[in-house]
Amino acid sequence: MTDPTSLPNFPPPPDEHPLRGRVLDALQDLKLQPDLDSDGDVKFVAQEQQLFARSLTGGQLDILRVYGQWKISENVPEDLLTRLNGCNDITLGVNLVKAGIAAGNLVLSVEQVIAPKENPKAKLQIAVSMILQAVQLWHRNIAAKSKREADIAAGGTGDIVSEHQDAVASGEQPKVGPWLSEGLRRPRPESGGNGEPGAGGES
Are the CB atoms for 34 and 27 separated by under 8 Å? Predict the structure, then answer.
């Protein structure tokens, strides 16, 4: 009788190819050198940042979660509310990306639906790009928020709106991101006696 261990190891047919295998193939195509970690997630490095991909399967559609976590350095403002506001900006302002703080780590993730026969390569590229941009945006946002709070504490106005608008007008990259947790516009002025906004206000 033929030894079964000597039989060739054929790959599963395309309609049975599991998502994790397709993710490994896609990451190899992207030259991101994927590997499996002890939890069974796919780990890879993009722009010198360690990221992970987890395949959530079991239904008619699969979910691909791409995520990363970063230990927050000591030079980042320690105020937890400032850090969480920065996460709120990311979650509200960056399509697909969710952000949170866990045990002193910044955690960013993107979850996407993957069809059974779909090549996840394009969605992986989108997720990786958005997560790496979100890390930079989070740091920039909380640094700006902390600076504003320090200005207010010192008796200043803490007005970051004009700074943002000046940067945009001069063609520079804004120093802060989407301030969706607080709103970018100044507070609406009180209306006049006829119900119209006060002079010089923004609607």
Answer: yes
